[in-house]
Amino acid sequence: MGVFWCGEWEAPTNSLVATTVAYDRLANLITLDTPQIPPMTETTIGEMFGRLFRALGFSSDKYEISPALMQKVLVGWFPRDKVGQSLQLLAEAGNCYVSVNKEDKFVVMPNIKTGFSTKSYTDKNAVFSINSPQRFLELHTAVKVVYRLPYLKDPNEELIRVDNIRIPKNETIVLDRIDFKSEDVPIMEVGWVHIFGEYNLPEIWEVSVGDSTGGTFLLGDGGGEFIQWTDPIAYNLMPEPPGRQTQSFTGDGSTAVFQVANYPLKQDTVDVWIDHVEQTNGTDYTINYATGEITFIVPPEDGSEIVVRYFYVADNVKDFLEAVYGEGSITTVTKRGSVYTITFHPSVGNSSLTSNFDELVGVFESEPYLDIVQEYVSPMNSKVVLISYGATDITLTIQNNGDVDETINIRVKGVGTGYHESHRIAKDEELAAQFGHKEYTQENPLVQTWELAKDYSEKILDFVSDPMSFVEVDFRGDPLLSVGDIITVSDETNEIKGIQIVPRMITTTYEGRLRATMDARRTK
Asked: Which residues contact 517 (CB under 8 A, 6 or more apart)?
């Protein structure tokens, strides 16, 4: 039956019977706090389950995730809540269930089962009765699945501001899991991290990645204006925005004009550094956004390193939309000036994206980052030495190596994720004509593509439109039977033969003999 842990025993002195309530590992797990996990991009439901189990400290031999859970998630994130809420979010988005098997291993499997039954029970050996109730109150004639297509928000939004932080001399303090202002909007993975104070330090920071997911990183004893996070495991956007470019040049002391490879450039997205010192547009250089030319007021010195980071206006919007909605879903995409016109194939239906398309284009023309600014109120011996962030919060470790107490202000800016909301409805017209329109709505922030919403609406409708799909079985019970198994039951005395079902809940009792009731659904 698996491995269980027990609560308090009830063992009356005047009775031969003792009782206890036993819980499997899942019951214990769901009460824990969800770890601080950064968002995941271009991932799947199965990969998100694996990431959560690993963050909870389980090795891969302690869980089993069905390879069928390949539903695409453009931006995946975990709520700052209990593990139970995170598992529920994933289970709904993946149309799957989570259980613990007899080997004490967490198992994640699809709800919709096909295949051969593993066990068979009949009225000759185990079944007392089989009932197939007609649950018309649970019948629905239409299913609406709401999905949310993510885009990047305004990069200038201030996420956190904490003033007058006192760091005692020669001590380290931790600002633990400070909530971002908008807790329901995840912050994207960091591609660049800016850390600076009200001072100039000439050397670039040394970076060592402390977590292979890219969510935690350590800062060395150097200082600098910016950090380029070059570790190969760093996450990309959804997908990698084709407009983002970083180019390096070498100064020769006389050349003032440098040409970037791609243009036209997007307004106000160009950053320029010379030998790791950020330059100011209009003071140190000028930009021709149409031609992609960067002109320095004073030619950079011979041997100097010039880094230009920019976004150019990308026009492959059609490819991105078809990656979300499916091949052939977009008929045409045209652009006149800054206005895009999109014609969707009739199979897609109406979409709210057309009225907000300027925000969608931001997926190509923005980049996620965190901007952590230290403002010194007193001497400047304190520095941020460790940063760890999740979807909705950040933890900062600040160290004061000086001989006096210091006070600083911290503010954090970054790129959050917004969502365009739309939906897909599947409807049984014949059933609606007979019973009227009764709609079931499924909404989950991890359902983020039209194709997935279409697939789910049709599969869910297949179940909720059939009042005869429920089966109740009263039988002798089997400790080796698990929720999710495919089994066959028969009651030939009452002419019920060979019904293939999947248990949803099994209630087992032992009062001198084992007996169980099972709530199940027919397989499709």
From this structure: 472, 473, 474, 506, 507
Q: How confident is the model at residue 398 (pLDDT cuts 50, 70, 90)?
A: confident
Q: Are 158 and 370 in contact (CB under 8 A)?
A: no
CA distance 311 to 320: 17
Question: pLDDT, tens digit, for every residue of 245-273?
Answer: 778 899 999 999 999 987 777 777 788 98
Is 7 in a helix, a strand, or coil?
Answer: coil
Neighbours of 119 (CB within 10 A): 13
Q: What does the pLDDT look like over 139-178, one tens digit per residue?
A: 899 999 988 877 766 666 677 888 888 889 999 999 988 8
**Between 186 and 95, where is the model more confident?**
95
List residues bridging with 240 in a β-sheet.
none
Count other Cβ atoms within 10 Å, centred on residue 309: 19
Say if residue 404 is exposed, middle or buried (CB neighbours under 10 Å; 0-12, 13-18, 19+).
exposed
- In whole angstroms, give the CA distance from residue 277 to residue 237: 27
Rg over alpha carbons for the chain, rounded to the nearest Å, is 29
* Predicted pLDDT of residue 386: 77
Structural contact between residues 84 and 78, judged by C-beta atoms closer than 8 angstroms: no
* Alpha-carbon dihedral sign for residues 179, 162, 204, 170: negative
pLDDT digits (tens, 9 = 90+) for 13-34: 888 878 877 777 888 899 999 9
End-to-end Cα separation, the chain, in angstroms: 28
Report the distance separating Cα 39 and Cα 214, nearest Å. Answer: 10
| 394 CB-near residues (< 8 Å, 6+ apart) | 159, 160, 177, 178, 180, 370, 387, 388, 412
Pairing of strands 40-44, 158-167: unpaired
Q: For the whole model, what pTM was predicted?
A: 0.64
